[in-house]
Amino acid sequence: VIFAITPVVVVLSLLIVALLMAPALVSLVAERRFPQLERKHGGSWLPAALALAPLAVLSLVRVAVEVTYDFLAGSGRTRSTVWLHAIWLVALVPALTMGARLDGIRGVAIGHAVVAVLVVGTTLAVLLRRSGVVLHLVLRRLALAGAGAAVMSVVIVLSRSLLGSGVAALVVGSVVAGLAYLLCLWPLRKDATEIW
Fold first, then answer.
1. Who has the most CB within 10 Å: 3, 33, 77, 186?
2. What b/e sequence results for 45-75 when a residue is b if at least 16 CB atoms lie within 10 Å of its CB, and e otherwise?
3. What proportion of the chain, given as a percentage, has pLDDT over 90?
4. What is the pLDDT of residue 12?
């Protein structure tokens, strides 16, 4: 075996995924251009654009599920993965039904995100804990990524409100938001040097 999937590798994988995906997801969510979308494609596509933010959250959880799935399967806990998906499905059916009735496609996306974070996230935490992964190592560092993503969102929204929606605003907002994100992650620099 060249590379073994250990609890430490799972912690590092989840952390790296979150740190890399957070800026992309924030950019997707904060840089929505609904007026341009409506002008170019008509109002019929607007509900689909409103579903992007919750689906971005869902995509982050899906990646965490895949990393966890690989770890559980590699350590012989395949039954856990079946239970994870069964619990997910049971929680998803009423959430999607209610979401569709209350808010259409956006409600379905919100239902997906809520189930992914609350139900699947909790189930993943339990499964990882039972498999020997020390969760506080992940959660403490993920809090920095979350704070950085929140700061990025504020910077992007502020740059758009101050500079408009042109190319200059996009470039300035992206650079300043990226620097703000890196500043929030500055406390993790020791972890990065230990990994490399």
1. 77
2. eeeebbbebbbbbbbbbeebbebbbebbeeb
3. 18
4. 66
